[in-house]
User: Fold this.
Amino acid sequence: MVFIRLTSDGVFQLPQNFIDTIRSNHSNSTMQSLKFLCAICLSSTAIASAAPETALPDPTTISVPDVTPSADPKIREDGYKFYYFHSPDVSFETAYQDLRDCRAHLVSAGPAAVPGFIPWGEQHRREVFQGTPMYGIVGVAMAAIIVPKMIRGQHSNKMRRCMGTRGYDRYAIAESVFDKLNDGEEQQLILMQAKLASGPKPADEVVMR
Amino acid sequence: MAEAAIHLEQAPAALQADAAYILVKASVAKSGLFAIQHVLLREPSEQELADYLAAKQIAYEAELPKLRKKAKDGPVPTIGEFQFDYKGKPNSFVVRVGKFLEDGEMRTILLQVPPGKYILYGVTVGDRGLASCNCLGTVGFTAQPGVITHLGSLYADKVHKESPVPNLEDELGEQMFQYSFVLGGALVPADAQTAVPAAIQKMPISPAKLEVIGQFYEPGAGNINRLAPIPGILGYERGKPVDLRGK
Assistant:
């Protein structure tokens, strides 16, 4: 049985031995995802947005990829797939928290048991196990093409809904830039996206599709 | 009760003192052959949660030798990743529009359920699963024993484009449908004047007292959304649910 500790700043934390077990078996990115899921945890009522575990860096020290608007029609056409968020009304700290809250929805698990038992209020949730391939040899090759696009699309749907309802617009970028902002160490991704989201208003059209 | 909910297709002769009842109307939109329906969840008790965790721990430890053997030198699933099929008392169910008390453009559904606090958890296609959770905001209510709790009217449909079903937040983005179902739900609450079927008019009926439920995480849902705003009750400020009755 895993007990969840509520810290004095309102953050739910898993026991260290549980985290150590996960860390010993998983990559750093998975670990970060799990930690963020646990740090912004389920509650039987509203989620209290947890304060960052450490002080945020000065955004001027954060390097971000170039998001200069492109005239390339392909980039404009694909703006609904490859974009970054921006709101004219938020501080860096608020953008960071919004992205942290919303990206925590990207952690996927096995299907919710409906009808069945859902452990509402319990942090002990199932995550997708990455250790064993799900497909045969040919399936693995096809899945390597299809699955990342499906996952990217599913993530996009979730982020659009979560960030969109918080007042963020989307601005088109190249796929390579999108990858720099979305693949990698989770904390660094959120910091980069928060800097862009709270920075100067892009001189570009909002992606409406 | 072994099930999370019994859909009563005939009015009961009398209400059971230890059971709760939920009266609701529901829209009948479909995706292909399958109805688009709401999912309700009953908040489990502390004992139910403890029982679940204990059962999961036991099952995981029993399976661990096989998991290690299968992993060989690779990673072994943690208990968090363990695919656990819990056979305990269920607390989630689909409000099935095919099992109704009265037919109509909106079907009248009477549910017999364990007493407790219920949450409008999300929307799904068909009679199983959770295609979209109301993770960004929803409402809950308490179903007391021996009383019919009159919830109101539930609406649900695909909302990536404009929907003919009223009261929904729709036109979320047609491109989103490429990747998963984009479903939305809404509730128009009942009040003391809301009509009820003649067969149950003489039974104790009380409008549901709604409670705004804040954001939550459901990693097992295909997509995330929120219950549509309810005028005077559920609103959203910067995407976060607020109880408008406090304003």
Remarks:
- Confidence is low (pLDDT under 50) at residues 1-51, 123-137 of chain A.
- The longest helix of chain A spans residues 137-164.
